[in-house]
Design brief:
Elements lengths: L11 H6 L5 H10 L7 E5 L5 H8 L3 E6 L2 H5 L7 E3 L12 E7 L10 H11 E11 L20 H10 L3 E4 L6 H9 L7 H22 L2 E6 L1
Parallel strand pairs: 1-2, 1-4, 2-3, 4-5
Antiparallel strand pairs: 5-7, 6-7
Helix pairs in contact: 2-7
Length: about 220
C-alpha cells in the first residue's frame, strides 16, 4: 500500500501515545464467547502489540499484524506480531474467533476496501466477531491532520460493505464491558456479578454508541 511509506519513521513514542488499554473490550468479547477456551484473536494494525499482550494476559491466544517493520521488529511480545497487511493477512482460512482493527480501515486506499474485508471474512471463523473503529467524517477532529487518513467514510458506507460480505452487525454501539471500564479508569469495583452487569449495561452501550456516531469515532461490532 502506498501509505506504508508514512509508517517507516514511526517510533516507540508514537505507538505508546496512540494505545489505550482495552481490558474492558477484551472482557466484553470473552463474555460474548461465553468464556470459551482457546479463543484465537487477531489484531490488525497492531503496532508494537500492546493489545496482543493484554489478550495474552487474559489467556487468549492472540496475534498481531502490522505493515510497520519498526513495530514488528520492536514488538512487546515476540513471535506473536508479524509483518502483514489487512489486504494480505498471513494466516489460513477460518483461523480466528475474533478480529479487531482499531483505527486501521481509514488508512487503506479506497480501491483496497473490498480486498480488506474479503481477507477479514476469509480468516474469521463462523460465528466469529469483528470489531472496527474509524474516524467519523461528520465530526471534524484531529483525524483530519493525518495524511494517511485517505479512506474516511460515513457509517452508512461501512454498513453496506459489511452486509455485502454477509456480516451481521451492530452499529451505534460501543463494545465495552462498562463494569471493567470503570475499574480500569477509576479503580472503582462494582460488586455485581458479571452476567447481571453485562445485561444491565446493554442499553447504555447503545446510548453511548449513538453519541459517538454523531460526535466522535464510529464503532462497529460484526459477526460472521
Amino acid at each position: 500500500m502506498k501509505s506504508e511509506r508514512f509508517y517507516k519513521e514511526y517510533n516507540e513514542e508514537y505507538y505508546k501515545e496512540r494505545y489505550y488499554p482495552k481490558h474492558h473490550i477484551i472482557k466484553y468479547i470473552k463474555f460474548l464467547l461465553k468464556q470459551k477456551e482457546n479463543i484465537r484473536w487477531l489484531d490488525v494494525g497492531c503496532g508494537q502489540g500492546y493489545l496482543v499482550r493484554e489478550c495474552l494476559k487474559e489467556g487468549i491466544d492472540c496475534y498481531g499484524i502490522d505493515i510497520s517493520e519498526y513495530a514488528v521488529k520492536n514488538a512487546v511480545v515476540k513471535d506473536k506480531v508479524v509483518y502483514g497487511s489487512i489486504t494480505d493477512i498471513p494466516f489460513e482460512d477460518n483461523s480466528f474467533d475474533v478480529i479487531s482493527a482499531f483505527d486501521v480501515i481509514e488508512h487503506i486506499h479506497p480501491k483496497d476496501t473490498e480486498k480488506a474485508f474479503s481477507e477479514i471474512y476469509r480468516v474469521l471463523k463462523k460465528d466469529g466477531f469483528l470489531i472496527l473503529t474509524m474516524p467519523n467524517p461528520c465530526y471534524i477532529g484531529n483525524w483530519i491532520y493525518d495524511l494517511t487518513h485517505i479512506n474516511v467514510r460515513p457509517l452508512k458506507y461501512w454498513k453496506l460493505i459489511l452486509k455485502d460480505f454477509g456480516f451481521k452487525l451492530k452499529v451505534e454501539y460501543v463494545p465495552s464491558f462498562l463494569k471493567y471500564y470503570i475499574y480500569q479508569n477509576f479503580s472503582v469495583s462494582i460488586p455485581i456479578p458479571d452476567k447481571v452487569a453485562f445485561w444491565l449495561e446493554e442499553p447504555i452501550r447503545h446510548i453511548l454508541g449513538k453519541i459517538y456516531s454523531k460526535k466522535g469515532r464510529i464503532y462497529i461490532v460484526a459477526w460472521k
